[in-house]
Amino acid sequence: MSANAWELLFKALWETLYMVGLSGAISFLLGIPLGVLLHITREGRILENRLANLILGSIVNAGRSVPFIILMVAIIPLTRLLTGTSIGTTAAIVPLTIAAIPFVARIAEGALNEVPLGLVEAAQAMGASPLQIVTRVLLPEARSGLINGATITLVTLVSYSAMAGAIGGGGLGDLGIRYGYQRFDGVIMLVTVLVLIALVQLLQMVGDRLQQYYDHSK
Amino acid sequence: MIELKQLTKVFTAGGADVKAIDDVSLSVPEGSIYGVIGSSGAGKSTLIRCVNLLEKPTFGQVLVDGQDITRLSDKALRQARHNIGMIFQHFNLLSSRTVYDNVALPLELAGASKQEIADAVLPLLELTGLGDKRESYPSQLSGGQKQRVAIARALASKPRVLLCDEATSALDPQTTRSILALLKDINKQLKITILIITHEMDVVKTICDRVAIMSYGKIIEENEVEQFFLSPKTELAREFVRSAIHEKPITDIESRFSPEPSEGARPVVRITFVGKGIVQPLITKVARQFNTDFNILQADIETVNEKAMGFMMVEIVGEPEQIEQSLAFLKERVQLEVIGYVG
User: Fold this and answer.
1) ipTM score assigned to the predicted complex
2) Nearest CA in chain B to A212
């Protein structure tokens, strides 16, 4: 591989990290509260509300059922509104985030559902408000499940970000398509794939370590 | 301290109404340990959950420390709950928090400062024998230690009432005894009123001052514990008492035993009495005075609410007239029940 090719690779890796990191962060910030709402409005939970749960659930399901490649194209006006452009790495963050929010929400909801109801009752018996139950009991108790979910989300975002290359998002996927596939450069294709594999392995390893560190249930 | 007035709780399951609690009124005196006993499904868990409104009663009043908590706003109810500690069968500790932080939780919720929390938590850890477990996580503790943490946590906000929902049901007998001793200790030291829900008569026997029996959502019998053991009135109560005094079925005389009297049959009586060394001299005296013989089938001394209490099953042998006189004499002095006859 030439020096130029290495330069391309590092640039692409950086773009991937940038896309995954930023869309991951924003989707956690918005997806986790959404997951909390989904959880607490469920039947038998602290703010049970069938209608709210149904509406939120339907929105989340709709968001998750649109294939990412279609979502990217469909929300171009929104992307342009938010970033001023519809192509490039920053622009790719918008569809990545939109796709990840409902994903994170469902994963967070699942992690919260695993918290034993008895803990919530104990907190209620102590005079905890619903907000206190969420911040002091539900989220800390679901922490290792949430970390696990975050790892899954980031790994999924790595693969989605490769698709974002299709709208000029850059990143490793884009590199692989343009140089590896369209220019028949087998070496670049191979290296790109290897870097992606290494990246996913690394994310999974860090995620597992963090989860173990925070898991005191065993 | 706790007063339930005409409490009723109706659950609707599959279109049918089920009365989990059916017009229950009871009063727990301040500073006492009050036990509610019943088989599973009798409604006792629902009852205790109504006391801090984890379960909302369908009808009736719940007065805690004079305050009707069924009429409080959400905010006032949360405030009132600081005054009512609760422990559970499965402990319900936060696995993500250390022992210290678990006990600190109610104080954090009430907005206490770090110093206030330390001042309250450390003595509680000493009281409950957890001084060396501060930094442990619940998963590193035994069941008994977990319940101790839960007790310390329930006491952190200095409540005047402690609710125990089957608090020893998941523990082995030895651990149960140590937890009950701790509860009694707390009751005496902190003058805290304790309401206990249990299906184990041993719990009632060991620490309760008063007891109520619950069956199908109703309180069917209520008494001071000694009186309850001396003269249970309902069949269910008698069953519970028999299990608590470890009375065995009378297998050795079963073939000759009949609940009805017959020609020449001798009565089998159960004698119940408070205090040690009372019954033996009494029986000797009766035997001499009326010329009857006492064949002791079973005998046991139990500690009921820190008092010695004796139970004895005897067969009285003699002439019918003398047996009658012996029974009359004994009836005036001890609790006595003819449970059958042997031929």
Assistant:
1) 0.87
2) B96
Distance set, CA B155 to CA A181, B83, B146 (Å): 68, 9, 14
Under 8 Å between Cβ of B180 and B133: no
């649109």: which residue's tokens?
A: A66
Q: Whole-number mean pLDDT of chain A?
A: 92
- Could you tell me if A204 lies within 8 Å of chain B, comparing CB atoms? no
CB contact under 8 A, A127 and B110: yes
Q: How far is A135 from chain B (nearest CA, A)?
A: 11
Amino acid in position A185:
D
A121 touches chain B (CB under 8 A): yes
Q: For B213-271, write each residue's pLDDT tens digit.
A: 999 999 999 999 988 988 889 999 988 888 888 777 777 777 788 888 888 788 999 88
Q: Does domain A3-214 have CATH number 1.10.10.10?
A: no
**Distance, CA of B14 to CA of A210 (rounded, Å):** 45
Determine contact: B95 vs chain A, CB below 8 A.
yes
- How far apart CA B201 and CA B312 sit, in angstroms, is 19
Mutation target to probe the A interface, by most A beta carbons within 10 A, among B100, B108, B109 is B109
Question: Is the minimum CB–CB distance between B81 and chain A shorter than 8 Å?
Answer: yes
Question: Which tens digit of pLDDT belongs to each residue from A42-61?
Answer: 998 999 999 999 999 999 99
Among the partner-chain residues B94, B108, B110, the one whose CB lies closest to the CB of A141 is B94
Residue spans per domain, chain B: 2-232, 245-342
CATH code reported for the domain at B245-342:
3.30.70.260
Q: Which of A112, A119, A126 to mutate to test the interface with B (most CBs of B within 10 A)?
A: A126
pLDDT in tens, A137-192: 999 999 999 999 999 999 999 989 988 876 778 889 888 888 888 888 889 899 99
Contacts of A125 in chain B (CB under 8 A): 52, 54, 81, 84-86, 163
CA dihedral for A93, A97, A98, A103, sign (positive or negative) = positive
B106 interfaces chain A, CB cutoff of 8 Å: yes
Residue B62: count of CB within 10 angstroms of its CB: 20
Q: Would you tell me which CATH number, out of the four given (3.10.450.50, 3.40.50.300, 3.40.50.150, 3.30.450.90), belongs to the domain B2-232?
A: 3.40.50.300
